[in-house]
Structure formats: structure tokens, C-alpha cells
Amino acid sequence: MSTAATLPARAPQFPLYVKETKYEFLRLLRARAFSVATIGFPVMFYLLFGVVVGNSSPDGQWRAKYLLGTYCIFGLVGCCLFSICVTLANERALGWLELKQASPMPAPAYLLAKLLTAAAFGAIILAILTTCGIQFGHAVVPANQLRHLVEVVLAGTLPFAAMGLLLSMVVPPNAAAGVVNLIYLPMSFLSGLWIPLGGLPKWISSVAPALPTWHMGQLALWALGYGSKWQPWQHVVWLAAFTVVALLLTVFLFRRNAAKA
Fold this sequence. Notes:
It holds the Pfam family ABC2_membrane. It is found in: Cell membrane; Membrane. This is Transport permease protein. Keywords: Cell membrane, Membrane, Transmembrane, Transmembrane helix, Transport. By secondary structure, the protein is mostly helical. It has eleven helices and no strands. The longest helix has 35 residues, at 60-94. The relative contact order is 0.13.
């Protein structure tokens, strides 16, 4: 017989979703090691490579605007992987996940809270980078391009949240942060999120299309008016397939781990 508590049939569940999301966001925002690093790294790198280096080169405005798109994705990926993979792996190890499962809270509220929290941190990074790019990098970002960039960043939460869930099923909790860094940083570099691929060795350009970060970066650049070898819908289809595969693998691993427990 299940020991999990249940809500009354007519109990409103929407407030539970709101509260779970609110407290998940506040918890991570107050965790300085997480919030400072997650927000600070993309902002610091953008100021160095997009603003400082850009202002000393003749293509400064182009560089500031180009890197605005790619560093928004770099920040978003970090939010998703660290806020979902690392926290979920730790909560699973501490037994916090079992406590949540035994509570009357709807299971989707737990995952949705993490998804919306990652999206909120991505939006914060986007706002800071856009302000820095316009004020200090003299980037010209029309309102319609900014709107498209916001849409891309928010929608981009899904594939990397799915990736974070998958990683949380396979990495050991005490090594989750290190493993995420070993995946996140090289993947961002090889996708041209730090430096445009035109300034990197040619073999990297042939590897980049195999990475989800490259596809998200190309969509962000498309939102800002840059062209791409692929059509936008092709990137969307690739990322949708990546999301589905990651979620299916997550469900399979979750059930296998539950059966072993």
C-alpha cells in the first residue's frame, strides 16, 4: 500500500505550483555560491570579450551584439544544468526527493518549479547582458529582435532542462558539479558561444552541429538578425528531437533506479 499522502479531490493545486516555484527560486537566489557564479560568469566573460575587447576593435558593435546572443545561451545552459542536474542529484542523495514524493504535492510541481526557476535565471542574465551590451558595447538591438531573443532564451530552457534531468540520473551526487563543468564548458566553447567559430580552427565548425548548444546559439543569432547555414525550423526540430530523447532516457533510468531501490 502506498504511504504517499494525497490531496483531497477538490483541493486547488495551482497555489502549490506557485509556492513550489517561488521557494525554489528564492532558495537558489539566496544560495550565493549558485546565484553569483551562475549569473556572474556569463556577465564577466561578456564584459571581457564582448565589451572590453570589442571597444578596442573596429568591429566592436558587431562583436558586442553577436556575443550578446551567444552569451545569453551560455548563461541559460549553466542555469539549467546547475539548477536542475546538481540540485536534483544532491536532493536524491539526501533523501529529499523521497520526502517530496511522500508529500501531497503534485509530482509535476517539483519539476515545473525547477524548469521555471532556470528560465527565470536565464531571463535575469539576458536582462543584464542586454543592458551591458547597449550601454557599454554600443550594440544596437531593435525591440523586435530583443523580443525574439527573449522567446528563444525562454524556449531554450526545455532542451537543457531535459539534459539536466538526464545527467542527474547518471552522475554521482558528490561529483555532479565537476561533471557538469566538464560537459558544459567544452560544449560551450566548441559551439562558438565564447568566440565566433570563424576565429577557431576549422575542425571545430564540423563538430559544432552535433551539439545542442550550437543549435541554441544559432537560434539566438537568428533572433538578432544574423544568418545561418541552417534554417531556424531545422534547429528547432533538432532540439525537439534532442529533448524527447533526453526525456525518454531519463524516464528509463528513473524507473530502473527505482526498481533497484
